[in-house]
Amino acid sequence: MIRAILAAALMAAPALAQAPAAAVATGTREDPPGRYSLPVGVFDGTAVPLRAVQGVRRLAAWRRPLDGQASVAGVFEGLRAEAAAGGGRILFDCATEDCGGFDFRRALELLPPPEMYLDLAEFHAFAVETGSGAETGLRLVLVSRTGSDVVWQESVIRPEPVAPRPVAVPAQVPAEPGAGAPAPVADIAQALDGKGMAVLDGLDFATGSADLPEPVPASVSQLAAWMTAHPRARATVVGHSDASGDAAANQALSRQRAESVRRYLVERLGLAGARLEAAGVGALAPRASNATPEGRRLNRRVEVVIAAE
Amino acid sequence: MSLPDAERMRRALAATWPAAEEVAMGPFMLRRSAGGGQRVTAARALPGAEGLAAALPRAVAQMQAWGQRPVFQILPDTPGLDALLEGGGWAVGDPTIVHAAPLSAFGGIATPPLSTFAHWPPLAIQEEIWGLGGIGRDRLAVMARVAGPHVSLLARDGDRPAGTAFVAMDGPVAMIHAMEISPALRRRGNAARLLARAAAWAAGRGGEVLALAVTEANAGARALYAGLGMRPVLRYHYRVPAP
């Protein structure tokens, strides 16, 4: 009985209830029993938290014209209110940048165009738990737009009825920072907003080399994106070395490494050269002890310091 | 027969040399690709879209966040974007002309037996020729992700591998990409024979038109294509950050 009610709740087309006249179903897909994941939160700077559920998955999409009665936000609010009224526990909701922009979109499985579209400039999402106990399923609703239409998709994972024991476990295990090491800066933007400086993680130069490591880590791209979002900001890229070896040579190499990063930001990512300076301070500003290999590794780094905004 | 219009050619260009992903962002359509050049990384404005100026910084930041150099493709139907970027000090990059002709235009080019080959995947020697012309692994990856019919072409000249190209179809339009002739074997008809082979290959797959893109600066190639009866059907250029 409970199962029948749950199934009915999951399979109902809430969108149609919300806008019976104008909404048009554009596509559906049923996936066979398996283990499927859906976001249960927004992008946290490192990953989108996912929850995996063993069961069957159904994707369905609708559209309706944008007009006086329908906006992206309006359709979203209607669907979310309906989900809340239905007794489901809303796990999160978010809009566009707050979801995590492209990083959030990457965690989603979408029906292909023209069934579903996602516009990175305007989308809303919420996730809701359906059922309870062993019958706990997940439903994610994503609302966006294309041209003059509101489009939305729901992704539902229904626990497999015949499975001996449906499981719901976190798919994302947070990375353990190394013992004694400072936690990695999850998000350059967060650090720049908060402290006006950040360590560019992942820039592990080869010994004695100022060539940028390939692939260039995401921290450098994130810095460029942050600079573009803050068009009046100027920054200094600062190279640091460990304390082993000749001080003058260390200073020169740290300067060259900072210059490599600066050149990449200007030549590859298109930042205006006048907004960026490069400097090297050798081993003068350690952030860990130079007595251990791990400490020396942490001291070899490139930082960015926002000079003015 | 009449040649396809500019919008049709734009779609054929995108389908036969595809980005890893196209992502809509307000008035822009962004292209995400790991390398592969500006044709698979340039963003474009959607025709008639409004609010370009307000949306521009986020579009640029998204490209940078992907590790891509910000670049926009300026198509004939989006003059507003060109003016906006011009005002912002962006430089013009690589004005390009897409040329096209009906397949029948290539019927008169002689392709002696064993002078040209069409096969997939390409041979190591073709990757070598491409590599010398700066067409590396990232562009081979572009070829590999083409969804529609596609093939590589090899020209032989005096028993030597002389040139290579890639051709793919989008509906009735066959587009040639990555045409590269070994420097020592240019001006000997190898490019024309590759075009003829491409036309023959496309004819067997319902093709009607053969097209390719060439930069305005490449006067030699443009003269060759014009001489074969190919006509300009689409012009575009890029906007890149000021040097």
Description:
The complex is a heterodimer of chains A (309) and B (243). Chain A has 9 helices and 11 strands. Chain A has 2 domains: 2-170, no CATH class; 188-308, OmpA-like domain (60s Ribosomal Protein L30, Chain: A), CATH 3.30.1330.60. Helices cover 28% and strands 30% of the residues of chain A. Chain B is of the alpha+beta class and 243 residues long. Chain B folds into 2 domains: 6-95, no CATH class; 100-235, Gcn5-related N-acetyltransferase (GNAT) (Aminopeptidase), CATH 3.40.630.30. Chain B has helices at residues 6-16, 52-65, 79-87, 124-132, 137-144, 190-203, 219-227, and strands at 21-25, 28-32, 44-45, 72-74, 91-102, 116-119, 150-157, 160-170, 173-181, 209-215, 231-240. Chain B has an 8-stranded mixed sheet with strand order 4-11-5-10-9-8-7-6, with helices on both faces. In chain B, strand 7 and strand 8 form a beta hairpin. Chain B is globular and about 60 Å long. Chain B starts with 5 loop residues before the first helix and ends with a strand. Chain A: It holds the Pfam family OmpA. Chain A: Residues 192-309 form the OmpA-like domain. Chain A: Keywords: Cell outer membrane, Membrane, Signal. Chain A: InterPro entries: Bact_OuterMem_StrucFunc, OMP_bac, OmpA-like, OmpA-like_sf.
